[in-house]
C-alpha cells in the first residue's frame, strides 16, 4: 500500500461518518435521496484535497471535516442537478436519483445540499471560505450553462471548450484547494499556489474524463460508452479530430452531428475512428501537461509528507480507468 | 399616496437598479433568464422588508442593498426551480422561464442565482448573515420537498400543512427580517422580535395565497383558477372543507382526489362549493390571526417611521387581490 492509499484508508471513514451524520440530521423525506447520492461510490476527492492542502500548509487542528465535507456536498448537489440535465439514467452503474425519486424532488434535494454546505461553512465564521465557495458554485453553474448552450456545436473553439471544462469542473476543485489553504491561514502567495494546483488538476481531471468517455467500456465506467458523443457534447477528442479533417468532410460531419442525424452505428464508427486516430490519446497528453503544471505549482510549498501526497496524487489521475 | 407607497416609490428604483447591475455582470448566456425572472413583476417584498427592518432597528448606513437584494435573488432562484416542479406554464400571466429557455438551463440559472446571493452576502464578512440565509434556504427546500411528498394527500393534517407553508414560504421572509435586524446590530431580543414578525407575516402571506388560489380569477392572478386543486395540492380551504364532510363523503372525495379522477367540471364544482361554503374566507381569517401576531411582535420596537411602515404593511397583505 503506497502512502496515498494509506492516507485514504485513514481519512475516508472519518469523511464518510461525517457525511452520514449530516444526512441523518436532514428531514426524513430528504434522507433517502441524500444517502443515494452520497453512497454512489465517489472517491471523496474534493474533501481529501482540502485536508491535504490545509495540512501541507501547516494546519494541525481537528475541525476541518465540516469544511472538507461541504465540498463533497456541493459536488453531490451539482451531480443531482446535472443528471437531470443530461437525462442520464445511470451514474457509476446505478440508476440516477431523478429516475428513482423523481426530477422535482431531486432538484430540491440538490438545493437543500447546497444550502447545507453553505451553512456548514458559515458556522466557522471565516467569510473568505463562504466567498470562495459561492464564487466557485457560480462559476460551476455558468460553465454548465455554457456547455448546454454549445450542445451539438462543432464550431466550438478549443478555447471555449477549455472555458467550459474549467467552469463546470475545475473551479470547484480549485475551491477545495484554496479553502484548505485559507483554513491553514496560508500566506497570499501560498494560497495562490494552492489555487493554481487545484485549477490545473481540475482541468486535467476533466480532460481525462473526456478521453475516458471515448475509450472506457461501459462495464468499467458504469455509463454508456461515448455518451458525450451521443448526448451531443463536442469534447476535445472530437474537436481535435474535426480540426484534422478536410473542410468538406468536416462540414458534412458537423452538419450531421448538429442535426442529430448520426445512427448508433455511425456513432460507434465515429468513436472507433477517433480513438484509432489517436485523438483520445492526444486529449490525455493535454491532461498530462496540466498535471505537470499542477506539480510545478507545488514547488514553493515547504517539504512535508502532505506535499508529497499532493504530488503523488497526480500520477494516478492520468492512469485511472474510470 | 400613503407613507408605504411613498417608501416603495423611493426604494424600488434603487433595488431594481442594483438587481439589473448584478444581471449585467453575469455571463451573457445566463442574462436573459435572469432578467426574465427579475422582471416578472415581483413586488420586491423581501428586500423592502430587510431595509425597513434594519432602519426600524437603528441602521442608518447606505450599504444594505446587496443584502436586501440577495433575498430577492434567493427568492427568484426558488421561483425558477419551483416552476419546473409545478410544471407551471404561467407565472404572473407570462410564460415560465423553463418553457422559454428549457428546464436544464433554468435549473442551472437557479443555481447561479443561489450562488450569487451567497457571494453578495459573504462580501460583508458578517458570518451570521450567511448562516441565517443558508438555514432559510435549507428549510425552504425541505418545505417544498414535503409539499411534493404530500401531493394528492387529503389525509394531510392541518399541522403538517402549516409545517409545509412555514417551510416553503415563511422561513425566507423570516430571514429577510432577521438579517435586517442583524445588519442593524440589534439586541438578541429585538432580533427575535424581528424574526417573529417575519415568520407570522410569511405564514399569513401563504395563507392568503392559498385562499386567493380559490377565489381569484385567472385574469387577475395571472395563473389558472384553482391551480392548487388541479395540481393536487391540498391547501387549507380544501382541508377545512374535508373536515366538515361526513366520513363517507370525505372518503369518496379523498379517494377521487388522490387518484386524480376529478374531471375539469368536478374540479370547478368543488371549487365553487368550497368558496361558497366559506372555506376560503376561513383561510383568510387564519391569515388575519397571523397578521395580528406579526403586529404584536412589533410592540417592543422603538417608535419610528419605519416601525409604523412595518405595521402599515400588514393590512394590504390581507386585502390583496393577487
From TrEMBL, chains A, B:
InterPro entries: Isoprenoid_synthase_dom_sf, Polyprenyl_synt, Polyprenyl_synt_CS. It comes from the Bacteria. Pfam families: polyprenyl_synt (PF00348). One of its GO terms (biological process) is isoprenoid biosynthetic process. Its cofactor is Mg(2+). Keywords: Magnesium, Metal-binding, Transferase. One of its GO terms (molecular function) is prenyltransferase activity. Belongs to the FPP/GGPP synthase family. This is Polyprenyl synthetase family protein. It comes from Desulfolutivibrio sulfodismutans.
